[in-house]
Q: What sequence folds into this?
C-alpha cells in the first residue's frame, strides 16, 4: 500500500508539472514573420471604446505591445513604451498596447484596473483588454512585454518584427541595441528588416485554465 501511495503521489506531481508547462504556452497556430496579420477589435480600457488597426486609416503600420499592470518587466518598460508612441505615432506607427492576462490569476490586470492605470499614467495610446486571449494567441505572444511591428503593404497588414524592444530590461540608459527602433527605421526606408526576431524578456502571460 505504501508503494502505491508513493507512486500516486509522484504521478500527481508529474501531472501537475506537465499541466503547468502546457499552461505557459498559447494553443493554436500563431503568425510568422512575413505573414498577413488579421485585424482585431478590442475594448480600450481607458474610455470603453473599441479599438482596431482599422481605427487608424492614415497609419503606415503599428507597434503592437502585449503588456500589463502587474509585471515588473512591464513596469520597467512602461516609460519606453510611452516614448515609442510619442516618437513614432507622428511618423505613422502608433502604439496599441494590449493586456492579455487572465484577471482571475492577476487581479491587477482586470479591465477596471487597466483603465485606472492608463488614466493615471496619461497614456497617449489605447490600452486594450484581450479578454478571450485570442489576439495574443494569434500573434504568438508569450511574455509581457512582447512587441510586434506590423506594416501596411498593398492593403495588407504584414508582420515585420517580433520580440524585445531593446537589449536592456533593467536600465534604459544602458541600451546598446534598439531592436524595434532599428526594424522601424529599415521598414520606413523600404529595406528588409535585418533582425526580424529576438527573444522577449518578461513575465509569462497568464493563460486561462479552461
A:
Amino acid at each position: 500500500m505504501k508503494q502505491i501511495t508513493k507512486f500516486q503521489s509522484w504521478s500527481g506531481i508529474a501531472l501537475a508539472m506537465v499541466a503547468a508547462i502546457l499552461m505557459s504556452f498559447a494553443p493554436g497556430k500563431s503568425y510568422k514573420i512575413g505573414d498577413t496579420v488579421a485585424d482585431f477589435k478590442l475594448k480600450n480600457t481607458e474610455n470603453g471604446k473599441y479599438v482596431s488597426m482599422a481605427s487608424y486609416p492614415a497609419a503606415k503600420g503599428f507597434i503592437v505591445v502585449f503588456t500589463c499592470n502587474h509585471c515588473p518587466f512591464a513596469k520597467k518598460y512602461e516609460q519606453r513604451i510611452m516614448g515609442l508612441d510619442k516618437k513614432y505615432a507622428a511618423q505613422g506607427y502608433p502604439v496599441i498596447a494590449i493586456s492579455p492576462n487572465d484577471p482571475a490569476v492577476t487581479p491587477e490586470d482586470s479591465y477596471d484596473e487597466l483603465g485606472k492605470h492608463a488614466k493615471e499614467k496619461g497614456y497617449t495610446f489605447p490600452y486594450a483588454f484581450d479578454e478571450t486571449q485570442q489576439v495574443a494567441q494569434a500573434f504568438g505572444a508569450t511574455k509581457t512585454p512582447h512587441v510586434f511591428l506590423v506594416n501596411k503593404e498593398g492593403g495588407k497588414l504584414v508582420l515585420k518584427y517580433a520580440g524585445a524592444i531593446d537589449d536592456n530590461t533593467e536600465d534604459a540608459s544602458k541600451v546598446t541595441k534598439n531592436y524595434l527602433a532599428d526594424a522601424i527605421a529599415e521598414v520606413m526606408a523600404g529595406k528588409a528588416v535585418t533582425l526580424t526576431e529576438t527573444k522577449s524578456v518578461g513575465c509569462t502571460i497568464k493563460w486561462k485554465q479552461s
About this structure: The two ends are 34 Å apart (CA to CA). The chain has a mean pLDDT of 90. The CA atoms of residues 121 and 200 lie 24 Å apart.
